[in-house]
Each structure stands twice: as C-alpha cells, then as structure tokens.
Write a structure and sequence with these properties.
The chain is an all-alpha fold and 47 residues long. 96% of the residues lie in helices and 0% in strands. The protein has one helix and no strands. The chain has one helix spanning 2-46.
C-alpha cells in the first residue's frame, strides 16, 4: 500500500513537472513565432 502511495506521489510530481515544461516550451515557441512575424512585418514594410 505504501508503495502505491509513493508511486502516485512521484507520478503526480513528475506529471506536473512535465506539464510545466511543456507549457513553458509552448510559450517560448509562440513568443519566438510572434517575434518572427513582427520582424518580418517590419522588414517587409521597410522594403
């Protein structure tokens, strides 16, 4: 029984860490894409 509780606790911690990692990665990707679009718009209007 204790092993099951320990496993559940480890799984919860690791899954929340994974979710944080994935959400952070997605935020970084979206942010860089927005910057790319912004820079492309600026350079295309300058041309």
């Amino acid at each position: 029984m204790d092993q099951m509780v320990l496993f559940a606790f480890v799984f919860a911690v690791s899954s929340s860490w994974l979710i944080d990692l994935i959400s952070t990665t997605l935020h970084c990707i979206c942010f860089s894409v927005q910057i790319d679009l912004f820079v492309n718009n600026k350079t295309s209007t300058l041309k």
